[in-house]
Amino acid sequence: MTELNLVQAVNLALERAMADDSTVIVLGEDVGIDGGVFRATEGLFQRYGEDRVLDTPLAEASIAGISIGLAAQGFRPVAEIQFTGFAYSCIDQLINHASRLRARTRGRLTCPMVLRAPAGGGIKAVEHHSESPEAMFAHIPGLKVVIPSSPARAYGLLLSAIRDPDPVVFLEPTRLYRAAREDVADDGAGLPLERCMVLRTGRDVTLVSWGAMLKETMQAAEQLAADGIEAEVIDVATLKPLDAATILDSVRRTGRLVVVHEAPLTCGYGAEIAARVAEHALTSLLAPVERVAGYDTMMPYPRTEHFYMPNVNRILAAARRAMAYT
Amino acid sequence: MPALRHQQRQQLYSSRPILLKWLAAAGRAECRQGVEIGQFANWLRQISDIVQRPIRETVGRANMTIVAEFTISSTQVLSPHGEAVGPLPEFARQADELVALYRAMVLTRTFDAKAIALQRTGRLGTYASSLGQEAVSVGVAAAMDASDVLLPSFREHGAQLWRGVTLKELFLYWGGDERGNDFAGPRHDFPTCVPVASHAPHAVGVALAFRLRGEKRAAVCVFGDGATSKGDVAEALNMAGVWKVPAVFIINNNGWAISVPRARQTAAETLAQKAIAAGIPNEQVDGNDVIAVRSVVERALVRAREGHGPSLIEAVSYRLSDHTTADDASRYRDDAEVSQHWSAEPITRLRSYLTRGKLWDKDKEESLLQDCSQTVDRAADEYLATAPLPPMAMFDRIYASLPVDLVEQSSAASALDLGAP
Question: What pLDDT was estimated at residue B54?
């Protein structure tokens, strides 16, 4: 066991995947000798050389496009996009090609690739560096969308993403890269995709979130506990395909749901979760579903981004509204 | 010859009097007035170093030196009338090779006519015709090895057929059935790419895979003139150049991107020169001359497989058809222009050559047409007799295994097959 932060855990998973499987290739801007702008690929170039750790020219759409060609030829490319604000130009490749190559060729060609990108705000970054576009990716059939919320989960989920036979968008919460450390066992064990993780059990209210917002969500749960309210906290982890059963099961027990995410409210992934609950657990609900989300605004510049980001107080207020509803 | 920059043109105009004087002194006929300035510059560059030096000195400013110069070549083997205009490549000296190319082009055109007829009668989806562009498609495929990978855009029926995709599979694809992409033939070839140019980076990835595994194979990516305006092509050419991967990019330039003519697609004099910025070899070829196309592509493929990197080939052809069956080109294109291009079309050209060389005659032609039309009709019948996929098929290949989250949706879709509302 080694204590690692999230970006070190990502690095360890990449190292492990490359050691285990010679078809795993890392590519992206500055991922080689520089080790990536966040150092997620540090040391890989030195260990595996320029044929397996490729510095690409500065062209994000083609980083995705090249990965598709490599994947169709039997490689397992792990592409890095430096920030999700620059990943939008990859969406054409993901929608029109990566996500449907298997379906449109009836399985003749497949696309086992991973597109990694740091996501989310709260690090006082320059504009376009704090995006939370997970719902856009989750709207693409054929794609998997995974967001880890801790170093150990990043390690296990990334290994599974790389081993998955289908394309995965892996969004790493930038805010957690160098936040808390935890013990990560380099045992090569992947965590299951398509499975929500219950981080805390509770009988009164279900708090659902993913990525960096789980930090505030867990803090809110602790404060609620101090008031005698037991919150169940669920880390969605894989947004697509969704493990709806875990969420529905929890809501059927608690009767109250608060979904927390950084992305803008409208058409955010919280809407999907709310709809699933409305479809399958409406009669269990004791209060309207609460969504604590970013606003339908541009992500503000760093001096005011804290006004935009959901915080513990907003989560607490939503949970208390749900508890007080009669 | 390289394109003259605007500034160079202006400088050349202003310095023409003195250049003319030098030419006259050298006894050169090119000194007459009224010659187009670009042509004039080309002549100047060709004639001698003595003349070139003053051009460089005049064209450049005093403190400027020329650091790079480029030329674009174009290859033609047969004239539009089917006469050899230069030495034939090795393969073209064998009658069976030429006849095979001819047959493939005729089969492609027969398929094309049938596809349009089926579409017009509601039995096929919107279809992109390759009428007039058969030489590009067939020539490219004929140059390839079976182990190479083709990444076609939507007008490369001839190439797909040559490589072993069946007529029935092509009909299935254009008839709206994914099984048309699950062809039994070249299993590693990519399916048709509909979004323009977006398959260009895939070719770099495929070629990179070959290079990394040390395989002597190449990726061949075909796209149209319109695609050269897109960033995907610029990015792919650039990356292919940086990594020196075994990829050959073919521009099937048919002169029209739906209603936008080549001249309004780019100010560049050729599309081949798009490769210059990427630092990769490039050339133009007469795209209605199947011998020239095959020969030029073969050369590029040998270079690629031997580790000498990618190339870009602009095959200049013409779209004799509408863009697709959903298009009406008479809205934007003169019939006169189309008629004029019929005189340069590829099938008549090769037939004239074959006939002149006694390799082809009327009987052979009639029997070929009959064969092609029977084969195509049979394939069309097989396609029409193929039942559509069941509703569950939407789900069974979207992921390697059906996610639990899709079970409910797929069950609902399955029930549709049983008559549920």
Answer: 55
- Cβ–Cβ contact B187 with A under 8 A: yes
Q: Measure the CA–CA gap between B84 and B291, rounded to whole angstroms.
A: 10
Residue A141: closest CA among chain B residues belongs to which residue?
B398
User: Cβ of A70 and B195 within 8 Å?
Assistant: no
Query: What is the C-alpha to C-alpha distance for residues B159 and B134, in angstroms, rounded to an integer?
Result: 8
Which residues in chain A touch residue B183, judged by CB atoms under 8 angstroms apart? 108
- How many other C-beta atoms can be found within 10 angstroms of the C-beta atom of residue A104? 22
Rounded to a whole number of angstroms, the CA Rg of chain A reads: 19
Predicted model pTM: 0.91
**Pick from A104, A194, A241: which is nearest to B178 by CB?**
A104
Q: pLDDT band for position B416 (50/70/90)?
A: confident
Q: Using a CB–CB cutoff of 8 Å, tell me whether A141 touches chain B.
A: yes
- The answer to whether residues A134 and A264 touch, using CB atoms and an 8 Å cutoff, is no
Residue B387 has what DSSP assignment?
P
* Residue extents of the structural domains in chain B: 6-59, 74-384, 395-421
Asked if B268 and B298 count as a contact pair (C-beta separation under 8 A), the reply is no
- Rounded to 5 degrees, what angle do the CA atoms A167, A170, A175 make? 170
Question: A276 to chain B: nearest residue by CA?
Answer: B405
B234-243 pLDDT, tens digit each: 999 999 999 9
Q: Which residues of B310-331 are buried (b: 16+ CB within 10 A; e: fewer)?
A: bbbbbbbbbbbbbbbbebebee
The encoded tokens of residue A111 equal 């696309």
CA–CA separation, A45 vs B94, rounded Å?
51
SS3 B294: helix
The domain over range B74-384 is classified in CATH as 3.30.70.240: no
Residue B16 designated active-site: no
Q: Please, are residues A103 and B178 in contact by the beta-carbon 8 Å criterion?
A: yes
Distance of alpha carbon B113 from alpha carbon B375, whole angstroms: 13
Q: Which of A38, A268, A235, A10 is nearest to A134 (CA)?
A: A268
Statement: residue B33 has pLDDT above 60:
no
Q: B18-38 burial, b for 16+ CB within 10 Å, e for fewer?
A: ebbeebeeeebebbeeeeeeb
Q: What domains are defined for chain A?
A: 2-184 (3.40.50.970), 197-324 (3.40.50.920)
3-class SS at B206? helix
The tokens for A95 are: 């929608």
Is B235 in contact with A62 (Cβ distance < 8 A)? yes
pLDDT, tens only, A63-86: 999 999 999 999 999 999 999 999
How many whole angstroms separate alpha carbon A153 and alpha carbon A9? 9
Question: What CA–CA distance (Å, rounded) separates B227 from B196?
Answer: 6
- Residue range B59-79: average pLDDT? 85
Nearest CA in chain A to B178: A104
- Cβ-Cβ contacts under 8 Å between A and B: the total is 135
Cβ contacts of B201 on chain A, cutoff 8 Å: 61-62, 64-66, 68-69, 93
Q: How far apart are CA B157 and CA A180, in angstroms?
A: 57
pLDDT reported for residue B56 = 56
User: Best interface-test mutation with B: which of A18, A73, A75, A110 has the largest number of B CBs within 10 A?
Assistant: A73
From chain B, pick out residues whose CB is under 8 angstroms from the CB of A109: 188, 190-191
Chain A residues within an 8 Å CB radius of B203: 69
Which stretches in chain A have pLDDT values below 70?
Answer: none
SS3 A183: strand
Catalytic residues of A: 129
Give the lowest-confidence range in B320-324, B328-332, B416-420.
B416-420
